[in-house]
Design brief:
Chain lengths: 334, 253
């Protein structure tokens, strides 16, 4: 604390930090994320029909409502204006199959916001990604609904529940019956899967937008996908085609670009981000190759989320001007 | 004990104000494992209460005979004998419960609630007070288990009191009522797993703190704290005070 002296000497008034203000606010960041999710949302509506949009609407409304009600009950300031609940809602919908019953989708939104986010203090305080955690809760609780993958019908007006369901490419690779889509279809997203994860092109456009706007650093997505690529290349014995299927299937792109880069649950330092991305990649591959679930992206992200405090501790950047470690050691020896 | 309490209070404190599971946070391991089904919770609660009451009485009666240096092994021997008796009784009369509880039945020996009450209460108090303390704590434990198990069983499995006939048969009831089934068509399976257990535990604990907190007693003020072996390194209580208290309570050997 600075003691204010009587005006005998002229002192320049210095207000408390921050001294430099930026126009980047959490609302602006969240808006950017929502914009970047739009291509994938449009793609999902084209691929799975209007029910994809309906599921997204349900999760978004459920998230925003839960946020409003919980903050009211906890007598805290209202934070639905920062748009983070909307982002969580869209991301959660992207992690659900389009056939999901609406009440399960709504329940997922409530779990994400009430249990994962607000019980730990609201925006920026959650220690795991709310959307991913809600997905895992739903996956463990309602496994049959959560793995009921609709076959894409390429019709915009298919509002009803699609009766035809099939295995996802990952499930086929793991030994289920089903036909593998072509690589072009994989890129465009015409395959079974969660409604937001299928269209690789749309996800990449969104990712590029986020990187260009400097909302996310490319460190985590690149190391995450890169690690999966390296391990899968070895596991598939150098088969580049199988490698491409591995990278384009499941929720890898969605997870790496939009979920693993969540500010509150990923490391701050560059080194930490690299460790985080590599860790996610390794766990994803371990689950895909050895696990009983066909997909491991969500589990890998949640596990690394929990490890973030330790990663931060080990990768604290050295402040400028502090002596080197070897010097200290030598001084101690001398 | 600094203050004298009425016997009625020794009994009633265990139910909410100093509930062993929800307020003292003792015995969480069996709580999480057993609170999947209400029938198991009731069985576990009765078994633990029996052991707790008997061991409290015996330890209280022997409190002047047991040298303080070997008190923990001595307590364990007393508790283990009662657990063995209860276990044999359960195996003989309610084999279904024995199957359901599995290893947690013999593990009552090392249940923190029983050892904790022996150490914190029965070792220093007369027999009548110890009996009531044991009974109150046992009922508090059973109550907490039943509350948690009801939430987990109804929401997580969609049943309530499933398999209760294995217990009611003991009291001569053979009406064939075996619990409610299919309450929910789509139960939320995660609540019967460990993560759901921790979640329900946290929520119920918060509610209990809210209820008991109104009476103006924080967790740190509870009597069990100063007796805790971790008291000197615990952040909940003032360190110096804990050290002093520990020294005072440690009788000269």
């Amino acid at each position: 604390m600075i003691q204010t002296k009587p005006a005998e000497e002229k002192l320049l008034t210095v207000s408390a930090s921050p001294h430099e203000r930026s126009s980047v606010t959490s609302v602006r960041l969240m808006l950017d994320v929502i914009i970047s999710l739009c291509p994938a949302l449009i793609a999902s509506v084209i691929i799975f029909g209007l029910r994809a949009l309906a599921v997204t609407a349900v999760t978004v409304v459920s998230c925003v409502l839960s946020e409003y009600v919980t903050r009211k009950i906890m007598k805290r300031s209202n934070t639905i204006g920062d748009l983070s609940a909307i982002v969580t809602g869209i991301l959660l919908a992207f992690n659900l199959p389009a056939t999901i019953p609406f009440w399960i989708a709504a329940l997922g939104g409530a779990v994400a916001i009430v249990v994962v986010k607000q019980m730990f203090g609201g925006i920026g305080q959650n220690f795991v990604n709310p959307a991913i955690t809600a997905r895992i809760v739903l996956l463990v609780s309602f496994a049959s609904f959560m793995s009921n993958w609709p076959v894409p019908r390429q019709g915009l007006m298919n509002f009803g529940v699609d009766a035809v369901t099939g295995a996802t490419p990952l499930a086929v690779m793991a030994g289920s019956d089903g036909e593998m889509p072509t690589l072009v279809n994989m890129l465009l997203g015409v395959r079974g899967g969660c409604l937001g994860e299928t269209c690789a092109v749309a996800l990449l456009i969104g990712g590029l937008y986020l990187v260009a706007r400097k909302v996310i650093s490319p460190a985590i997505p690149l190391t995450f996908i890169g690690t999966v690529a390296v391990i899968m290349l070895i596991a598939e014995k150098g088969d580049l085609c199988a490698l491409a299927y591995q990278l384009l299937s499941g929720g890898l792109l969605l997870g790496a670009i939009f979920m693993a880069t969540d500010y509150a649950t990923s490391p701050i330092s560059f080194k930490g981000k690299i460790v985080f991305g590599i860790g996610c990649g390794i766990i994803t591959c371990l689950i895909r190759i050895f696990g009983s679930y066909p997909e491991g992206v969500s589990f890998s992200i949640i596990i690394m989320n929990i490890l973030v405090p330790h990663i931060e501790k080990l990768t604290t950047p050295k402040p400028f001007g502090t002596p080197r470690k070897e010097k200290k050691a030598k001084e101690a020896q001398a | 004990m600094a203050e004298k309490k009425s016997l009625g209070k020794e009994f009633s404190k265990g139910i909410i104000a100093e509930n062993p599971v929800l307020r003292l946070v003792l015995g969480t391991c069996p709580t999480l494992a057993v609170s999947v089904a209400v029938t198991n919770a009731i069985g576990m609660g009765i078994a633990a209460t029996l052991v707790l009451v008997c061991s409290n009485v015996v330890i209280s009666a022997l409190r002047k005979v047991i040298p303080s240096k070997v008190r923990i092994p001595a307590y364990i021997v007393v508790i283990a004998s009662f657990v063995t008796m209860v276990q044999l009784l359960v195996k003989a009369f309610v084999p279904a419960l024995d199957d359901a509880l599995g290893v947690y039945l013999p593990l009552i020996v090392v249940n923190c609630i029983i050892l904790g009450r022996a150490e914190a209460f029965a070792g220093k108090n007369p027999i009548a007070a110890s009996f009531l303390d044991g009974l109150g704590m046992g009922i508090g434990f059973t109550f907490a288990l039943i509350v948690m198990a009801s939430i987990r069983e109804i929401l997580g499995a969609g049943t309530f009191l499933d398999g209760i006939s294995s217990l009611t048969v003991l009291f001569g009831y053979t009406g064939g009522f075996d619990g409610f089934k299919n309450i929910l068509s789509q139960p939320m399976g995660i609540l019967t797993l460990a993560p759901g257990g921790f979640f329900v535990f946290g929520v119920v604990m918060a509610l209990a703190n809210k209820l008991a907190g109104k009476k103006g007693k924080s967790a740190a003020e509870l009597k069990g704290c100063a007796n805790c072996p971790m008291a000197h390194s615990c952040s909940l209580i003032d360190k110096d005070e804990a050290c002093k208290e520990n020294k005072k309570e440690e009788p000269a050997v």
